[in-house]
Amino acid sequence: MMNEIGMLIGILVGIASIVGVINRIQSSFLTQGHKRVEYYQKLQALCGSDANNNLAEILVILRLFTRAHLTNKEIEWFIWTPGAFRCLPEYGKKIELIDIDYKNNTFIWRGKFKYWYRRLGLAISLCLIYLITGIASASFILYTVQHFNIEKITEFTFYSVVSLFLLFIATYVLIRLYSVLPPQFLIGRKLRGVNT
User: Which keywords has UniProt assigned to this entry (predicted)?
Assistant: First the structure.
């Protein structure tokens, strides 16, 4: 009887903690969205008709949304085109691949990436670099683990550093590959509130 009550209390405490975590996450998203709207309204007030007027303050606020260096025309477009501001973080990640079509208020492929085979070639080359560095890193790690000897600590340290370096390169390339692959979600996207 006591065991069953203890188990029931444990289950109730687990459920209550899960509900508390979900509630906290949901309230965090709501406050984040509210702050985003406040920053957007502040950007509109600062920009006015010309982004040059308060450029320093505008750039500071935009840093919260993207690391990309935007031109004044891009800043004004993202602020005043309905629905464009929500695409700003994604655009900032893929700025070297995509561009803005100001006439149609949408995104287009930039330069050489207009052709599908160039995009495919970039993705394949990044995949190959990722595979080669990942396999080399795993090989170095296995070699160092299998041949560990305290008397050869310098050799062990060298192989460990090389394997970690290759693992870092593989991770960087994987992140880069991820940023290359999904820009088609922005390309040709109909922005809310814009008739194209």
Answer: Membrane, Transmembrane, Transmembrane helix
